[in-house]
Amino acid sequence: MNANPLLAGGDLPPFDAIQPEHVAPAIDELLAAADAALEQVVGPDVPADYDAMARVLDVAVERLDAAWGHVSFLQSVADTPALRAAHADNQPRIVDFHTRLGADERLYAKYKTLAASPAASQLGSARRKALADALRDFVLGGAELQGPARQRFAAIQERSAALSQTFGNHVLDATDAYQRVVPESDLAGVPADVVQAARAAAAAAGQEGCLLTLKAPCYIPVLQYADRRDLREALFRAYNTRASELGDPAYDNTAVVSELLALRQEEAALLGQASYAHLSLVPKMAPSPADVLKFLRDLARRARPHADRELAELREFAHGALGLPDLQAWDRPYASEKLKQLRYAFSSSEVKQYFTLPRVLEGLFRLVETLFGVAIREEPAPRWHDSVRFFRVSRGSQAIAGFYLDLLARPGKGSGAWMSDARQRWQRPDGALQLPLAQLVCNFAAPVGDKPSLLTHDDVITLFHEFGHGLHHMLTQVDELSLSGIAGVEWDACELPSQFMENFCWEWEVLQRLTAHVDTGQPLPRALFDRMVAARHFHSGLRMVRHCEFALFDMRLHLEAGSESRVLDLAREVSAEIAPTAPPDFMRYPYSFTHLFDGGYAAGYYGYAWAEVLSADAYSAFEEAGVFDPATGERFRTHILETGGSRSAIDNFKAFRGREPQLDALLRHQGLG
User: Fold this and answer.
1) How do residues 349-378 score in pLDDT, each as one tens digit?
2) Which of 33, 138, 249, 381 is least surrounded, with the fewest CB atoms within 10 Å of its CB?
């Protein structure tokens, strides 16, 4: 047992040593310890005292959660059949424990005794909020349910977790399974580096020609640049029918989604909520589903005239300049890129030559160091893949956090980009300060030949976005486990730091530090930057309407009774209400919408727009004071990044900005005001 890396202590997790065969033995031991701790903490020998309970229960549960977090993370970035099987075998045990923990009447009673005691009023503000959150979470965890309702609630938790994992596996497998080999001549118009990567992928597979996949570094540029319309249509159709009944039956998520939605509504009813949307909003900022619907429809109403004009203009251009009288969904990225090139005299491919991954990282780190008074240095560390890098974050001579960068696309790795925590900051009951560790994941194109990875400007924005989440996690000064970093932060406010960081990608002073041409080493020319800025809001109306469409679909899906039997009909209804054009009949995006069914954003996708009201207004403070103003950076760090969930997000915002947030900043930043 001592050799099991999932049971190892130490400064950094031994990611390079964790194997599927380690999972079950480690979970056996850690679950036994956590169960024993639960029985001990509810007994008479442990008083209803904050520290006494934490010493017994929190230590054991945190150790279990950390080990299981490593297993779940590795399954998302380094998936193998053996690891997937080990995860699937042990997940029900983890879900069962947490369901029992969250619904334990004895533990709930002890927390209520603590909350009612004179000692509770003497707790610090962070601990008082942690206690209030814990009581709320007991109710949401079914602690007040009895008999058959309690048993059914537990069964729903286990089944829902399994379905979510199945959903994510289906999307990953369907994405990885698609391969299309074409002659290089079919890729006319596609940037040379993308063609070179596809040619290398074909050669590695022992085939001639170019191998195309649905991974973002291939799929996106083919849709944007490939002159062959039938090729664009083929990839678009494959991508948008992934994990549906129109694709491989082995990966079909249709039944998974229906059952998961029905279970969510049943869970809400058991807890006395009108719908899962109502249940989801209990710990969030938004007051009610009606408020969210009003917010989204108002935002869509403001954006729709812009979107209508943009689409009409695109259709006219496609017809007249590209010979496409019937502009289809798979033509829009291509026609948009051509129109953007014509209007602003640059292409995304041209810009990409200036954003080499090493230079972008160097510039990002220097910006963060300047704004927030920290230092970032690379160090050796155990890794799960050779391309992963580890960095330490320090303030003065004191290390305060660390983070891993896993930035390149590869088979077996989930698509998209995200931040997850390998460890949270915590003043442990034994007095030791546990420092936070973040894992920042993207899916950028790998280097080709002797050239470094090249990022599109959108890739750079994605990297800054995820780093914003990382800063929220790493720079916290909160010592309570349930409130440090992003823990305890209202879900619809979690995007504030990430969206805030995106704005720096449009500042000349910042881009000078981020860019060096891959061949000449020259920074981005000012004239090209000016054209990029002029194009910043190109089709912003269409983008905003599309986001509102997804968010409104999500909210209605989790609000309306019977939605599990009319998923696609509901998607079409929302499109008809919000979108300026109808989608193709074959569109099946709900069945690969991982945010909703394997990503924690159920009845919460609106949070991106909700939080952007906060982030755009927060960034206005830097526009007013200067991009590199250290005093403004210090206030943002102090009132937003360091406070975590120790007080409400709106109070954090008002402490930083000195007033309530204003929608005008969002509309202005989107070019819609």
Assistant:
1) 999 999 999 999 999 999 999 999 999 999
2) 249
Q: Residue 22: how many CB atoms within 10 A of its CB?
A: 20
pLDDT score at 317 = 98
**CATH topology of 251-346+539-605 equal to that of 357-534?**
yes
Asked if residue 300 lies in contact with residue 580, where contact means CB atoms within 8 angstroms, the answer is no
Q: List for the chain the helix, strand, coil content (%; round to 5).
A: 60, 5, 30
Catalytic (active site) residue 466: yes
Element (H, E) at 296: helix 289-322
The percentage of the chain sitting over the pLDDT mark of 70, rounded to a whole number, equals 100
CA–CA gap between residue 291 and residue 278 (Å, rounded) = 11
CA pair distance 286, 648, nearest whole angstrom: 12
Rounded CA-CA distance 280/118 in Å is 32
d(CA 289, CA 177) in angstroms, rounded, equals 38
Q: Indicate the helix (H) or strand (E) that contains 379.
A: strand 375-379
Contacting residues for 117 by C-beta, under 8 A, at least 6 apart: 48
d(CA 410, CA 389): 16
Q: How far apart are CA 603 and CA 17, in angstroms?
A: 38
* Burial of 164 (C-beta count, 10 Å sphere; 0-12/13-18/19+): buried
What is the fold, at CATH topology level, of the domain defined by 357-534?
A: Neurolysin; domain 3 (1.10.1370)
- What is residue 423's three-state secondary structure? strand
Please enumerate in sequence order all residues whose Cβ is within 8 A of that of 180, keeping only pairs 6 or more positions apart, or say none: 211, 212, 213, 234, 235, 238
| Kind and range of the H or E run holding 378 | strand 375-379
- 5-102+104-140: CATH topology is Glutathione S-transferase Yfyf (Class Pi); Chain A, domain 2 (1.20.1050)
* Tokens representing residue 292 in the block: 């969210």
Which of the residues 310, 466, 495, 612 is marked catalytic? 466
Q: For residue 601, give the nearest of 518, 524, 492 by alpha carbon.
A: 492
206 C-beta neighbours (distance < 10 Å), count? 6
Bridge partners, residue 356, by sequence = 454
pTM above 0.85? yes
| Domain 251-346+539-605 part of CATH 3.40.50.300 | no
The sign of the dihedral angle between the CA atoms of 38, 40, 42, 47 is negative
Edge-to-edge, what's the strand order for the sheet holding 437-444?
375-379, 389-395, 398-408, 437-444, 418-423
* 646, 126 Cβ separation under 8 angstroms: yes
| pLDDT tens-digit map of 598-616 | 999 999 999 999 999 999 9
Domain boundaries, the chain: 5-102+104-140, 178-241, 251-346+539-605, 357-534
The angle at the Cα of 108, spanning 429 to 284, to the nearest 5 degrees, equals: 85
